[in-house]
Amino acid sequence: MARLLSVNVGLPRDIEWKGRTVHTGIWKNPVRGRCRVGRLNLEGDGQGDLAGHGGEQRAVFVYQIESYRYWQEQLKRTDFVHGQFGENFTIEGMPDDAVCIGDRYQIGGAVFEITQPRVTCYRVGIRMNEPRMPALLTSSGRPGFYFRVLQEGEVGAGDEIVKVGEANERMTVTEVNALLYSPNHPRDRLQRALRIEALSPGWRASFQALLQSQTIAMGSGNAGLAPAAAAHPAAPGFQPLAVASIDQESADVLSLSMRHPDGQPLPPALPGQYVVLRLARTGGGPPLFRSYSLSGPLSTERYRIFQLPTNSPPTMALSAMSVRRDSPRHITVLPGGGSLARAR
């Protein structure tokens, strides 16, 4: 039987990192006693960057104690405490390769549904004092996952986790995570993922964009089967944005700020918004797709993301990305020099 080992909450605060101030809620501490779970948050919890975290689809982040043990071995560390990975629920059982998007669980007096894998952000590297951590989490196949709250209620450490329902279309968190981050995106698996009703709008739009890019590349396909994004009343296809600045935040972290090429206002970011980058390999071959949270203060002038190390080739051309919104729109990023050197 799976169990809830710890409920962890924390409010945003300012910390000093690499000579700059970062506003973050990545530090979570165990709660004593019971904790009220609301539709958008746990009582006493908050997020520092609402453009990249939180919201109904990512109300509760879940991470497994088995993954703690894996990272303790990989990183040769013994100092981990509950909440170490910024999770709200530290659990025993429910590995990423066994639970599926759309599975529903009762914990204490609340009911939850799995909506998506975690999209890692540079702040987990700050919390872990390990700059490689976001890339390691992405490549490890141990991302953890998010719950949305179907029924509000109280939870507490020691509660049993009881499965009360599941999606008709079965894809595990590991499978869905790999479908976005791996270089291969089989069309049938994209279509299968899109049939999962509980899949969050952000991930759904990412897979729709992948499916659309395959259709465009083939130069054929039934227009009636085009993804929902194609029916959005925004301009069709990809809209250009220019890279306004590329800043080396640290030895392992690169930030990119992007603006409209004509200086026009950008749509303001929404809570939980993130982006998918399409990275062209300099040596040819199929493009790579990577997902990043939008970071920084809310702005209609610029979008900012952080590029982190991956196992990809060291130099890649930054060619396109899709802004994740409830009604998705697509944009193209045009770097001034044509190619982007990945931080080594």
3D architecture notes:
- With 344 residues, the chain is α+β, with helices and mostly antiparallel strands.
- The protein has a domain at 2-179: Beta Barrel (M1 Pyruvate Kinase, Domain 3), CATH 2.40.33.20.
- The chain is 18% helix and 33% strand.
- The chain is built from six helices and 20 strands.
- It has helices at 65-75, 122-128, 133-140, 173-181, 187-194, 201-218, and strands spanning 2-9, 13-17, 20-24, 29-30, 35-37, 60-64, 89-92, 104-107, 110-117, 145-151, 153-155, 160-165, 239-248, 254-259, 274-281, 288-293, 303-307, 315-323, 329-334, 340-341.
- Residues 218-238 and 309-344 have low confidence and may be disordered.
Short description:
By secondary structure, the chain is an alpha+beta fold. The protein is 18% helix and 33% strand. Helix 5 packs antiparallel against helix 6.
By oligomeric state, this entry counts as single chain
Residue share in helix: 10-25%
Biggest β-sheet, characterized?
Answer: 8 strands, mixed
Apparent shape: globular
CATH architecture of the domain at 2-179: Beta Barrel
What is the averaged pLDDT score? 78
The CATH H-level superfamily of the domain at 2-179 is: PK beta-barrel domain-like
Strand content: 25-35%
Q: Give the class-level CATH name of the domain at 2-179.
A: Mainly Beta
Distance between the termini: 43 Å
The helix-strand sequence is: EEEEEEHEEEHHEEEHHHEEEEEEEE
Please tell me how large the radius of gyration is: 20 Å
Low-confidence stretches: 218-238, 309-344
CATH topology of the domain at 2-179: M1 Pyruvate Kinase, Domain 3
Number of helices: 6
